[in-house]
Design brief:
Blueprint (H helix, E strand, L loop, with lengths): L1 H22 L14 H4 L8 E7 L2 E4 L7 E2 L5 E2 L4 E4 L4 E6 L4 E4 L4 E7 L3 E15 L6 E6 L2 E5 L2 E9 L2 E8 L1 E6 L4 E5 L2 E6 L3 E2 L4 E2 L15 H7 L16 H7 L43
Parallel strand pairs: 9-10
Antiparallel strand pairs: 1-4, 1-6, 2-3, 2-5, 5-8, 6-7, 7-9, 8-9, 9-12, 10-11, 11-14, 12-13, 13-16, 14-15, 16-17, 16-18
Length: about 300
């Protein structure tokens, strides 16, 4: 009797094990050469996209430069040619798929000129722009203003356009390569500031950032659209030769007096942000509350 009971228990154990094995599927082996999907492993950015990350107060956008102006909305995609304007006590943060962020201050005019994997270009016509630009190999990031153009990489800082003829720039992290409207280039390192105006160009050499001035705090932007946009197929672009130095690296590493860098100048007469109430104004006076544009 005892042997029969033990035999029955043993048979039940085998049956239970067989059922469990059948109920839990065994993952199939990954074929040789196959890779883990990007959605699982968090692959590299495949497309450069700019989105509205945060909005404070009243900020408006002119998508693709086509009327009418509309209220900026979080998650809205900003394509090349899109213009932005903010009112008093307002601001807007733009987030890119590579983690770069730009924060536009109050009473500002701004334009996105290029958005691609090879180049991002923006124009700040009036007001304050805080920036946190991430390093991305082969990508050039340029920020123009009425009197100079700054090429950046892996940089945090601020550009303050007080008027169409006066600009100040501060670098808190990384470095800037600045070229004024007279074609003079110089580097601005972390902890340095640089002033530029339409009459004399950029000051030389850069000065230390004034005591008591601290770096702006990088905003936190959480948008599901960023991840989705970054995984979208990118438009095919011509690949640069392996030994070619990118324009961004050239601008960043150029030291005045030792190298000559060919860069696109930034004519003071160029108008990049279209106002809504007037075609242009006299540059001798700029209203602090409107998106004024300097006459040629």
């Amino acid at each position: 009797m005892r042997r029969k009971i033990l035999g029955a228990l043993f048979a039940m154990t085998l049956s239970t094990a067989a059922y469990a094995a059948a109920a839990v599927p065994v993952p199939a082996a990954m074929p040789p050469g196959a890779s883990i999907p990007a959605a699982v492993k968090g692959g590299p950015v495949k497309a450069m996209v700019a989105l509205v990350g945060l909005v404070e107060g009243k900020a408006q956008v002119l998508v693709d430069g086509v009327e009418p102006w509309t209220e900026a909305k979080v998650g809205q995609r900003l394509t090349a040619g899109t213009q932005v304007k903010t009112e008093a006590n307002a601001g807007m943060t733009i987030a890119f798929t590579d983690g770069t962020k730009l924060r536009i201050g109050p009473n500002a005019t701004f334009k996105i000129e290029d958005v691609s994997m090879s180049k991002v270009g923006v124009y700040i016509g009036l007001g304050k722009l805080d920036f946190w630009v991430k390093k991305l190999k082969g990508r050039m990031f340029q920020m123009r203003n009425p009197v100079a153009v700054a090429s950046v990489r892996g940089t945090g800082g601020t550009i303050d356009v007080q008027s169409p003829t006066q600009v100040s720039m501060m670098c808190f992290e990384g470095s800037l390569g600045v070229t004024d409207n007279f074609g003079r280039s110089q580097g601005v390192e972390a902890g340095q500031s640089l002033a530029a105006n339409a009459a004399t160009g950029a000051s030389e050499p850069p000065a230390p950032i004034p005591a008591g001035v601290t770096a702006p705090v990088e905003p936190t932007v959480v948008l599901p659209e960023l991840a989705a946009a970054g995984e979208a197929p990118a438009t095919p672009e011509a690949a640069a030769p392996a030994d070619e130095v990118t324009a961004e690296e050239t601008a960043t590493e150029t030291v005045p007096g030792t190298e000559t860098t060919t860069q696109t100048t930034n004519p003071a007469q160029e108008t990049s942000v279209t106002p809504t109430t007037t075609s242009c104004i006299d540059c001798t006076y700029v209203s602090p509350s409107g998106p004024d544009v300097c006459c040629p």
